[in-house]
Write a structure and sequence with these properties.
By secondary structure, this protein is an alpha+beta fold. The chain contains 6 helices and 4 strands. The radius of gyration is 18 Å and the shape is globular.
Length: 178
């Protein structure tokens, strides 16, 4: 008789949700149809590596929230990373980023185009809606993204990054935090 216990299937199930989240983020609407997103899924080994970097950053910069989040993500079965490259979309008239137009913004390549961050926000919303529909606990964490950026896991050109740890345990470890 084939008997499959939930606890034996949990990691595989959460990984499947992470994959659907990645697809939801990829297909989310993007300004002018330009895709500047980077998307990845992290397994338990990667989560431990990111957690260690977060602890290092917490100690180096005196950031207790980074240490707290580093401990929290160790409860995740998988983690989705969403990032944006900082590329202007080529508008003659906009100014949403604070510069007159994309040409002026391009003189400051480390400054995000408003469309980069808005597109990333829409993708994050699409991704977490998939987790919510699957009843998988999650939280969008900038602290994870800062560690991922420092580790250069998503490449040099991805500058704005968020992590979404995923857990399917009896209690959400990402909201009841110390």
């Amino acid at each position: 008789m084939g008997l499959y216990r939930e606890e034996d299937l949990r990691a595989q199930s959460v990984r499947g949700v992470a994959e659907r989240m990645a697809m939801a983020a990829r297909t989310a609407p993007k300004g002018r149809g330009i895709d500047n997103l980077a998307i990845a899924i992290v397994d338990k080994d990667g989560i431990r590596q990111i957690s260690a970097k977060m602890v290092e950053m917490a100690d180096r910069e005196d950031l207790p929230g980074f240490r707290r989040d580093a401990e929290n993500i160790l409860h995740a079965e998988a983690m989705v990373l969403l990032g944006a490259k900082l590329n202007a979309v080529g508008l003659k008239y906009c100014g949403l980023c604070g510069f007159k137009n994309c040409a002026e913004r391009n003189e400051h390549p480390d400054h995000p185009c408003a469309f980069n961050t808005v597109d990333l926000g829409i993708a994050l919303g699409s991704a977490v809606s998939v987790a919510m529909e699957a009843r998988v606990d999650n939280r969008i964490m900038y602290t994870v993204g800062m560690a991922v950026r420092e580790l250069k896991l998503m490449g040099e050109d991805v500058k704005v990054i968020y992590g979404i740890p995923l857990s399917a345990g009896p209690k959400n470890p990402f909201f009841d935090r110390r």
